[in-house]
Automatic annotation (TrEMBL):
Pfam families: LRR_R13L1-DRL21 (PF25019), NB-ARC (PF00931), Rx_N (PF18052), WHD_DRP (PF23559). Residues 445-513 form the Disease resistance protein winged helix domain. GO terms for biological process: defense response; response to other organism. Residues 190-366 form the NB-ARC domain. This is Uncharacterized protein. Keywords: ATP-binding, Leucine-rich repeat, Nucleotide-binding, Plant defense, Repeat. Residues 14-99 form the Disease resistance N-terminal domain. Residues 694-818 form the R13L1/DRL21-like LRR repeat region domain. The keyword Repeat applies. GO terms for molecular function: ADP binding; ATP binding. Belongs to the disease resistance NB-LRR family. It comes from Miscanthus lutarioriparius.
Amino acid sequence: MDISSYLAVGGWFIQVIFDKYLSYQLRRWAANCGIEHELDRLRVALLRTQSLLHGAELVPTLSYSSLPWMRELRDVMYHAEDLLDKLEYNRLHHEMEESSANESSSSPISAFMLSRFHNQGTPSSLEPCWDRSTRVKNKMVNLLERIDQVTNGVSEVVSLPRNIRSRNHIMTSSIPHGKLIGREFEAQQLVTALISSQVEIPVSVVSIVGVGGIGKTALAQHVYSNARITENFDVRMWICVTCLLDELRITKEMLESASSSRFRHGGITNFNRLQAALKARLASKRFLLVLDDVWNNDNRTIAIEQENWQKLLAPLKDGANGSKILLTTRSSIVAEMLQSSYIISLETLQVNDCWSLVKTSVFDETEHTINSKLENIGRKIAETLSGLPLAAKVVAGHLKCKHSVDEWKQVLQRNAVWEEIMPILRTSYDNLSPHLKQCFAYCSIFPKNWEFEAEQLILLWLAQGFVHPDGCRRLEDIGKEYINDLRNKSFFTIQKKEFVSYYVIPPVIYELAKSVAAEECFRIGDDEWTRIPSSVRHLSVHLDSLSALDDTIPYKNLRTLIFLPSRTVAPINVSIPPVALNNIRSLRVLDLSLCMMDRLPDSISNCVHLRYLNISSTTIVTVPEFLCKLYHLQVLNLSGCRLGKLPSRMNNLVNLRHLTAANQIISAITDIGRLKYLQRLPTFKVTRERTQSIVQLGYLLELQGSLQIRNLENIDAPNEAKEAMLCKKHQLSVLQLMWASDRDEVNGNREEDVLEALQPHENLKRLDIVGWMGVKSPNWLENEWLSNLELIFLSGCNAWEQLPPLGQLPSIRIIWLQRLKMLRQIGPEAYGSGSQMETFQSLEELVLDDMPELNEWLWSDQTMRNLQNVVIKDCNKLKALPPVPPNLTEITIAGKGYWVPYHHDVKSARRSSVSSLCIFNCPLLLARLSAQMNTEIIARFRSLRSIITDQMTILRCSLLEDRLELIESLDIQDCSEITSFSADDDDILLQLKSLRSLCISGCNTLRSLPSTLSSVQSLDKLVLWNCPALESLTEEPLPLSVRKIEVALCHPLLKERLIKEYGVDWPKIAHIPWIEIDGEIL
C-alpha cells in the first residue's frame, strides 16, 4: 500500500464522516448530551486534515519518510469513524427507548416519527445519555489530541504543491522491433476499419480499449506503419495524450505532425490561431490521427469532457471523406464519449503467444534450436504472466542475459517482473476517484476469477460506506454507477452464465488489487499465504481453512469477516473457532452463509457497527432478540434458514434496506413502516390492527420491484388505502392487489372506493387485481394513466360485467383474464375512446381462462394487429372465434365449447402465420374440425408446424389435410385412456415427413409406442415423460437421425432395459449422442 492509497483512504473517510455523522440530528442530540463543543472541535480538526490531504495529493512525489505518518493518519481516521458511528448508535438507541416508552399512545408509528424528528428531550429521558457523556468526552478529547499530533507530523513531511503531478509515460509512432504476435487478427480488423469510408461520416473514430500493458499502443504502432495505411492517408499524425487533456499542447503537436516541413509557428500560443492553422493544413486532406493513451477526467462530467474534445477536434471536420481518428484508451467511456464507430476490446494473450513473445525477444532468429530445459521453464514463466504482453517484454529483458537453467529458475521464483509492471498498471488505479479506489481494492478479499453478482457487491460497498449519497438517487443506483465505471475503465469484465451477468476482475488487474490493498485486505485460503498484517481490516476465510484462525489475527480491527464456501462439493460441517467471533466489535460486514451453526453467537450483540449480516443457508432456527439492537444494520439475509418467526422488535432496525427471508415471516413484522429505507417487500398482509394496516406502506417510499398486497378486504375506509401512497412508489414495477376469495361479507361500493384509492404510479409495468368485487372500474384504469403498463392480470373479479378500456393502454403486451364470472361480452367497451385501428397495437398475448358466461367476443380485423398468442380455456359458452390476426403464431384451446370460427376472406387468411396449435379436452371442436371445412378456414393454418394435443384424432381432421408432411413438432399430453396407438395412428405418423420432435407425456396407461416410429427418418428428438405403464421401446431401433432422447418417470422396467451396454433396448438407442434417463446423462 503506497502513499496515494493512504491519501485515498484518508480523503474517503473524511468525506464519509461529513456525509453521515455530522448531521443535524446528531449535533442536536450531542448538545443535549453536553458534547456539542467536542463535536465542533472534531469538525474543525477534520476540515484541517481534509485541506492537508488535498494539498498532499498535488505534490509530485512524497518522501517515503511520510509513510509512517500516513499509516498513523489512516488509523486515526478509522478510530474517528468508529467513535462517531458509536455516537450515532447511542442516539438511535435513545430513540428506540423513547419509542418503546411511547407505545401506549394511539399511534406507535406517529410516536416513533415524533420522537425521531421533533422530540426536545427531557431530563429523565436523557439520563442514560448523561451517564455516558463523560466517557464519550474523554474519548473525543483523546481523539482530538491524536489528530493534532498526526496532522502536525504529516505537515512536516508534505511540501506545499507548486505544480500538478503528471505521468511521463510517452509513446511514439515508431514501430517496435520484431513481428506482431498474438494480435494478427486484430491488426487486420483495424486496417480494414481504418481504410473503409462512410459517406455520411467524413471523420470517424476507431478505438482500441484494454487494460494497461495489454498492447494497445504496440498494436496501434504496427497498424500506423502498415503499407495499406500509409498509402491510404495523405497525412498521418501521432499524439500521446496522457492523463490531462492539454488542448494547447495537443493542437500544437497535431500541427507539427501534419506539417511536411518543420513547423514554423512554434511561437504561437494562442489556441484559436493554432486551430485555424491546423484547419487550413488538413482541409480536403484524408488524414489519420492517432490519439494514444486517452483518459477521462473523473472530476469532470461526461458532458464537459465531450465538449472539450469537440472543441479540440473541431478543425478536423474539414478533412476529406474517409479520414480517421484512432485512439487507444483504458476506458470504454472514452470510446463511447468520442462516438467511436468501431471498437476493439483487447483480451489477454494465450500462454503460447506469451511464450512466443518472450522467445523472440530473448533468442536470435539464427538460433533454430533452444535448450529444452530452458523452454520448459520459459513456458512455466509464460503461464505466470496473466497473458499480458508488457509482462512478456519485461520478463524477456530479465532473461536475455541469462543462459543457465538456474538463472531462469530464479526468474520463475521471484516477483521482479510484477514489481516493474505494477507501476504502469497503477496509473489506471491512480486515475480513479477515492471512492472507486476503495471499491476496487476491497474486491481483493475474494479469490482470483471470482464471479461477482453486481447487487451483492454493491451491498458490501454500502456496508463499508464506500458509496457516497448525492441526495437524489438511491444508494444502490449510485453503487451500480460505480461498478459500471470500473467496468468501463477495464477493472471488470462481464461474463454471462445462464442469462446471469457476472463481473470478473481480469487476472492481471487482480494482481493490482492485491498490491494496492495489501495492508488492509487479506484472504485465508490461498495455497500459500503469509502472516496476516496487524493493519488488516477486511478478511475472508475459506471454510476449509478454518485451522488458520488463531489469536494472532487482529480481530478487533476487522471491518469485514467473510467465510467463503468450501472448495469441496458440498458444505462441510464446520465449527467456527470462538476466537474468530469474540472480539469483532468494529465489524461492518459478517458473512456466515453456509456455516453449519444452529444459533447466532452472543458475541455478535456487541457488533454495534454491523451493516451487513448474512446467515443464509445455515441451520439456524431462531434469530435472537439482540439482533433488533443492531440499529445500523442495512442488509440481513436469512434465506434458506428454517425460521418460524422473526424477533418481535424487528421494526427497530430503522436503517434496514434489504431483508431476505421467507415471505410469510417478513409479512408478520409489525410496524414495518418504521423501516423506511426498505427496498423490497414481496408480500404485505393487511389486517385491521394498526401495526399491520395498509397505512404502514405509506412510509416505505423506496420500495422497488414487486409488491403483493393481500387481504385488502380488511381496509375499512378508502382514506386508509390512500395513505399507502402507492402513487408515489415510482420504483415499483409489479403490483398485485388481492382480496380473499372466501370472505363472508362483500361491500362492492366500498371495494370500488378502495381500489380507486390504490392508484399506482404511472411507471408500473405489471398490475394484478385478484378477488375484487366491485362493478365500476377505477378512473385510473379508464384513462391512459398507466401508459407504461405491459401486463394486466384480472382474476376472480366476479362482479365485473364490463371490461375497462384496456385498448387505451399504449404499452400493454399481455392481457390475462381469469374467472370473471359475470363477463358476457368482450366488445367495443374494451377498445376505449379511440378508433379500433389505434387500440391494442402493442398486444402480443391474450389469455381467456375459465370465463363461464362469456359468449361473445367482438373485434374487427383492424385491432390487435400484433397479437401473436391466444389462449382460450374453459370458455364453454363462447360460440365463435374472432378473425385471426395476421401475426398470430400460437393458438391454445381447451374446454368443451362448440366454437365456429368467423367467416374470413381468403386474402386475409393467406396472410395468417399460425405455426403452433394446442387443443385439449375439446371433443365438440374436434368434431367440427374433423368435418369438411371451407378452404378459407383451412387456409388460416397454412403455416402450422407444431401441434400439442390430448387426442390423436386431430391429426385426421380436414384442417390438416395436405399439411401433415409439414408438421415439425408433435406433443401428445395427458391421454389418460390410451394404452397403445392404433393402426390409423401408425399410418398418420408415417405421413409426418418433417417431424423433428416427438414428446409423449402424462399418458398413464400407455404400454407401447407407435410401431412405425422407427421409420420416421426426420426425427431428431424423442421425449417420454411420466408414462408409468410404458415398459419398452419399439421393436426396431430408433431412427439414425435421432440426436437426443429423454426418458423420465416411466416404468422401472424401461429404465432397466435402457441400461448402458447391458440393457435389452440399449442397442436401439446406442447411436444417439445425448441420452438422458431420469435426469442422468449416459
